[in-house]
User: What shape does this take?
Amino acid sequence: MTSAPPHREIAVVAFAQTGHRRTSDELSEVEMLMPVLHEVLDRTGLKTADIDFTCSGSSDYLAGRAFSFTLALDGVGAWPPISESHVEMDGAWALYEAWTKLLTGDADTALVYSYGKSSPGPVRDVLTRQLDPYYVAPLWPDSVALAALQAQALIDAGDTDEPALAAVAARNRESAAANPHAQLRGAVPQGDYLVRPLRTGDCPPIGDGAAAVILAAGDRARELCARPAWIRGIDHRTEAHGLGVRDLTDSPSTRLAAERAGAFERPVDTAELHAPFTTQEIVLRKALRLGDDVTVNPSGGALAANPIMAAGLIRVGEAAARIHRGDSDRALAHATSGPCLQQNLVAVLEGEAR
Amino acid sequence: MPEVLKAPLVVEFPFTRSLGPVQSAFLTGLRERVVLGVRTGDGRVLVPPVEYDPVTAEEIRDLVEVAPTGTVTTWAWNPAPRRGQPLTTPFAWALVRLDGADTALLHALDAPGPDAVRTGLRVRVRWAAERTGTITDIACFEPYDGAPGEPAGHTGVFQDPVTGIVAPARLDYTYSPGRAQTAYINALSGRRTVGERCPACRKVYVPPRGACPTCGVATSEQVEVGPRGTVTTFCIVNIKAKNLDIEVPYVYAHIALDGADLALHGRIGGIPYDEVRMGLRVEPVWTEGARYPDHYRPTGEPDADYDTYKELL
Assistant: This one.
């Protein structure tokens, strides 16, 4: 089955993100978010009142703060009343919702933002609360432990080894040296085993941060941005929640999402992969059939800054920003959610020929 | 900038969850030292069992006993167990495919060190001494070099099946209210109420949250408001809340402090509940050592004109 092409052309026209940091406890969530909202609006010259649809992604579990997304709305000025929605997911899924809203023709512009303050809580434990509540969550397997199970499966399968993983870590953080927003920049020691076979260097930093993008349709996008990053396709897929049902060395959901997003129709020159653990980049490169000629995570990726709930949206934003700057003509952005790459979203972005 | 406030915040909740027929059989089985899987339409046996085929979404209920012995399919050595995890000494997380099953179960594996664990290792269930029908009835797995266990062919029908679980959760946070609310709370400790003025619309928000919710811009100009204010609207509470030492009925009101453009809420005292009215002028009553006003009482001034507070309802 082939999907019909979208009836409207929709593009990412602006992107902004915070400097991601280990802690930002002097700021409430909305205080952390607001500069990013202002920056992304300033880039287009739009005012809040000009935005047709607003969609956000966040999770109350990170900061232990109930209904925090309603407080974050203070930052967008929700009066007079706005058209708004929220996903309890990474902002990449909020972007998906906004994209579908624009496809319907009900909106020409959308503001998408997401944020996460991981610093107040024990994020490895917090993430256990998203697991199967009957068979898995009562064992409190933390996020690093689950990633380590996937890592050992990859090593056993001969798909990688520890030196290869260290090289993934080093390459991402070297790339991050040029990214002023990244939390870890430049060389980072591989360190000791956190949960073997994963060392601290294989794992993402824990941090706070926010990101926002603006989407616009058709000629509106051309007015707002010199070189819009046109979204040629987006799709997201999930796999069975039972870890023991899945082949952890592969990511069929990523492959299918990429296929449905049109990623395999022509080569991409850039890929921003949401791979918080080094091992996950190995899985994703294979699933997405990325060759060595593709620039992967020039931003440093999630190994350099992983504000949970924003890190996936940042991948879309970073890919779009490269197209805006003319550094890329066709880029793939990937976001993930859940343990061991359970859910995956792929977007394909293109700039018009220059 | 003064340091922001921080305090421990514990979020703790027991989730009570009911079980479907397959989950009920599986967890009851663990209580009775029997491990059950479920057979899919194409003949595969899933352990732990689910009620719907993960491939076809077909409802499945064909329970099959599997052995309490199995093989590690992948593992990870956990040198520093965290709170709530199955063992307090270093252990391996493992996915274990039990003999007779086609899928793997996640649990802990007790082993002396990482060198004693490998993919393909043979293991068996170590049962918890006291079992209640939860996944932790399996205390952990342990290395095992004997013959595969022999399932007795249990049908999955039990006397007194477990129909629900209580899953307690606890997460420990360090909560910080951020810059604006820290300033508000610090001022309250001096029995002053401060709001913040929006640079765009000039409204004063109390308590301040650092942003104007109308304009979507940051607020930072602090403005002292009150202490007196006007009741803009109210309700009479007739049901006593648990752990709340206030006699009912009492009045809960929205109070627009003088100089504020947003009403905050508080209890009205010092006046019979049925004499509280919109426009009543009130002032805060502080008790010794309190960090916020205990309640508000009438000032004795004439009531405020409706026009002076109608925008603040």
